[in-house]
Automatic annotation (TrEMBL):
The keyword ATP-binding applies. One of its GO terms (biological process) is negative regulation of cell division. The lineage of its organism: Bacteria, Pseudomonadati, Campylobacterota, Epsilonproteobacteria, Campylobacterales. It holds the Pfam family ParA. GO terms for molecular function: ATP binding; ATP hydrolysis activity. GO terms for cellular component: cytoplasmic side of plasma membrane; cytosol. ATP binds at K33, G34, G35, V36, G37, K38, S39, T40. It comes from Sulfurimonas hongkongensis. InterPro entries: FlhG, MinD_FleN, P-loop_NTPase, ParA/MinD_ATPase, YlxH/NBP35. Keywords: ATP-binding, Nucleotide-binding. This is ATP-binding protein.
Length: 291
């Protein structure tokens, strides 16, 4: 039954996507454990990308621990689950953060299909087209390697793992990389809360060496950059502010801007992105393929 429903929904998505030309790049940001700054990096990265002129959406896919509303200091009343239940429209749940940045409050997993009969899903796909202008969608996943997290990682164009230079966090990051490597060869890594470039690259090289030895030569683990440990970051979090917005002259802002530049360069190359996969509907199209 679920297989037949998924097939019907895939056909609906394909029909609704046929006339689209905008390309959205989906970037999943994950971590091996909580508390390493994944959501802080996701929110600030989305903000910096939006400030560069890109149209950015950030989707809170951290089931049970969604906290992007705290990061952006906004109130959320309804999320994507309410849309799928027919209790709200897509426009109802979208929260504008800045001129080019939209927050999409979300729950996911099996519930995406549980409430998606054909008629409801067709209406949802039409409404989701309000997000078709997005250049990039940041998907802030949960920590760890659960099935619902893997679903998002498999659907994304890019997967970025965040870790800190702590032995336990590094071990968990490696475990995540090992699991993601079963889905894809290319994985990005961001080192957070480091003393500087030397420490960040040193830890990355150790992770890469172990990964190459145990996972295999096909793995393409890429160092995307680091975020220096800075009291300005922790104080911003406590105040529900983005450090990139309130401390534009800080080292962490310089760091996140450098990472954003690398991602923007990938967007310009537009690698491996189909023109009919745009916005929220494009993401759901990919997710449905894994049921």
């Amino acid at each position: 039954m679920m297989g037949n429903q998924a097939q019907k929904l895939q056909e609906l998505v394909a029909t609704n996507s046929a006339k689209k030309s905008k390309k959205t790049r989906f970037i999943a940001i994950t971590s091996g454990k909580g508390g390493v700054g994944k959501s802080t990096i996701s929110s600030n990265l989305a903000y910096v990308l939006s400030q560069s002129g890109l149209n950015v959406g950030i989707f809170d896919a951290d089931i049970g621990l969604a906290n992007l509303d705290v990061m952006f200091n906004v109130k959320i009343k309804k999320n994507i689950l309410h849309v799928l239940k027919g209790e709200a429209s897509v426009s109802d749940i979208l929260i504008p953060i800045t001129r080019n940045l939209i927050l999409i409050p979300g729950e996911s997993g099996d519930e995406i299909l549980k409430y998606s009969d054909a008629a409801l899903f067709e209406r949802f796909m039409q409404e989701a087209q309000v997000l078709d202008k997005l250049d990039v969608m940041i998907i802030d996943t949960g920590a760890g390697i659960g099935d619902h997290i893997q679903m998002f990682l498999n659907a994304a164009d890019d997967v970025i793992v965040v870790t800190v230079p702590d032995p336990a966090a590094i071990t968990d990051a490696y475990a995540t990389i090992k699991t993601v490597a079963l889905l894809r060869n290319d994985i990005g890594l961001i080192m957070n809360q480091v003393k500087g470039e030397k420490e960040a690259e040193g830890v990355f090289e150790k992770i890469k060496k172990v990964a190459k030895a145990n996972i295999g030569g096909e793995l393409d683990l890429q160092y995307l950059g680091k975020i220096n440990s800075d009291i300005k970051v922790s104080s911003s979090i406590k105040k529900r502010e983005l450090f990139s917005a309130v401390h534009p002259n800080s080292q962490p802002h310089t760091d996140i801007t450098a990472i954003a530049s690398k991602i923007a360069a990938r967007l310009e190359r537009n690698m491996l992105v189909s023109p009919n996969e745009s916005g929220l509907s494009g993401l759901l199209k990919r997710l449905i393929q894994h049921f």
